[in-house]
Structure prediction request, 327 residues.
Amino acid sequence: MKPSILVARAIFPEVLAQLREVFEVDYNETDGIFTPAELTRRLQGKVGALTTGSERIDAALLQANPQLKIVANMAVGFNNFDVHAMTAAGVQATNTPDVLTETTADFGFALLMATARRVTESEHYLRAGLWTKWRYDMFAGAEVHGSTIGIIGMGRIGQGIARRAAHGFGMNVIYHNRSRLSAELEAECKARYVSKDELLKTADHVMLVVPYSAESHHTIGAAELAQMKPTATLVNIARGGIVDDAALAKALAVGQIAAAGIDVFEGEPSVQPDLLKVPNVVLTPHIASSTIKTRKAMAQLAADNLIACLIQGKALTPVNTLPRQAL
Prediction:
């Protein structure tokens, strides 16, 4: 008899077909987001699950499903996992690193360009029929080429952004990270390590690529926004909660900083209402990794983790370390 798993959100048909060759699959074909009670119920009797950031895996759910062995997140982030509780319960947690690095770095730069050059503002202006003539200062934005970018969070994606900035746009790259990169990586990225305060005060463009944790919650709040240049831009492709969205909306409204580009939000898919009222912000619905090729690779790696763990006994990209006997 095949092991039974839950696929908690809609995925690519070819990946689903591959999973059905190996497992009995309970599939959320409607793609509705389960409530915690529904998720707990649907996991009854399942030894594995393929999830996205929408599904919270916590101690109460694990206690109600002691048969669960693995939850494979179709994301590089895993702040929807209580990793400590999963480890204590002997449940493998996995994510999808590497496969989305370059696509996400591309989008980070796209969002930076749209923010600095006021693309959203100018498009709305045009669509509203307000464009009647050329003017020397019409939607004049911030320079990107040759400016200074400050990257907070210098993992794989941050390094990808640094390479694009330095090699493609001749930007001066400064960064802040929990730990400093090796001299070799700094040279490859043409990046210089600085304190967070120096980065905020110096950068023309601040890019956030830091993982979410209790420690990184509101990495950028009112105090940090006050340190930035009034001409600076802020881009968040990290996670909701890294930025205090309410404080950001206030800073944008009074011109404390020039503009922002935001792909992730606190409490998403809800968006802080005041962010919708200010014109100098580019808002996108958590799509930094959204190309067909990359999203297929993410789904495939999540599926491969389920197969590798449940059939072969060892996950490919584990988040936590379990005793061998736990699986």
Notes: DSSP finds twelve helices and twelve strands in the chain. Residues 101-283 form a domain with the Rossmann fold fold (CATH 3.40.50.720). The mean pLDDT is 96. The first helix runs from residue 13 to 22.
